[in-house]
């Protein structure tokens, strides 16, 4: 039998980049992140064009039962004392979870439930993160290299950014050359 061998998409191990798939790409810049960092004055002082993170997504179907795969490349940097981070979101379909997998660099995954209780997981090469439903999530790059993480999430999950307008209740900053976690009231 002559069964054609399918060459699947792949992650380039060294860079964490997705390759060989139909890819969608999105860059998120300083100018897109109004109100996300605590120090809005510091954010406005930075170049708006500066890319904070790139996301590559395999172009698959958003239908029930399908899965999306994407890689986030979160660059090192800070806004004021706060480390670069993703916007963060709940899934629109709150019960839908997600898996993150650390590919490159070091950082944190901030998880927060609907009652505002937050926790942090270390992200490192090979780390696996099971994000349950009803849990908002945000990546934070506390290192000096790019933080890349692969994510797999249900096609039907959707994203709800607006529900987090009050923000996350934990902030991660650098103070005295140390990584510090601060609790804040209502973000
Ligand atoms: C998908 C997911 C990730 C994020 C990406 C960017 O559900 O969690 O692919 O979308 O890390 O973060 P946001 O979407 O918060 O800007
Ligand atoms: Mn998600």
Protein architecture, described:
This protein is mostly beta strands and 187 residues long. It is built from 1 helix and 15 strands, in the order βββαββββββββββββ. The protein has one helix spanning 40-45, and strands at residues 10-12, 17-19, 23-29, 51-58, 67-74, 78-79, 82-83, 98-104, 107-113, 118-123, 128-131, 135-141, 147-154, 170-175, 178-183. It is globular, with a radius of gyration of 17 Å. The mean pLDDT is 95. The chain binds fructose -6-phosphate (F6R) and manganese (II) ion (MN). Residues 28, 55, 70, 72, 86-89, 98, 137, 139, 151, 153, 159 line the site of fructose -6-phosphate.
Entry summary:
This protein has one helix spanning 40-45, and strands at residues 10-12, 17-19, 23-29, 51-58, 67-74, 78-79, 82-83, 98-104, 107-113, 118-123, 128-131, 135-141, 147-154, 170-175, 178-183. With 187 residues, it is mostly beta strands. The protein has a 6-stranded antiparallel beta sheet, with no helix packed on it. Strands 10-9-12 form a 3-stranded antiparallel beta sheet, with no helix packed on it.
């Amino acid at each position: 039998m002559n069964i054609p061998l399918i060459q699947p998409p792949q992650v380039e191990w060294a860079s964490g980049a997705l390759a060989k798939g139909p890819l969608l790409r999105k860059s998120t810049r300083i100018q897109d992140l109004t109100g996300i960092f605590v120090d809005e004055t510091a954010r406005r002082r930075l170049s708006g064009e500066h890319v904070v993170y790139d996301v590559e997504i395999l172009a698959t179907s958003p239908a029930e039962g399908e899965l999306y795969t994407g890689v986030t490349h979160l660059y090192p940097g800070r806004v004021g004392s706060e480390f670069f981070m993703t916007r963060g979101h709940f899934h629109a379909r709150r019960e839908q979870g997600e898996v993150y997998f650390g590919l490159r660099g070091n950082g944190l995954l901030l998880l927060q439930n609907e009652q505002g209780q937050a926790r942090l997981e270390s992200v490192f090469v090979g780390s696996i993160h099971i994000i349950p439903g009803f849990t908002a999530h945000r990546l934070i790059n506390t290192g000096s290299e790019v933080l890349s993480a692969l994510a797999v999430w249900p096609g039907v999950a959707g994203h709800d950014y607006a529900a987090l307008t009050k923000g996350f209740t934990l902030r991660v900053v650098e103070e005295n050359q140390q990584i510090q976690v601060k609790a804040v009231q209502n973000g």
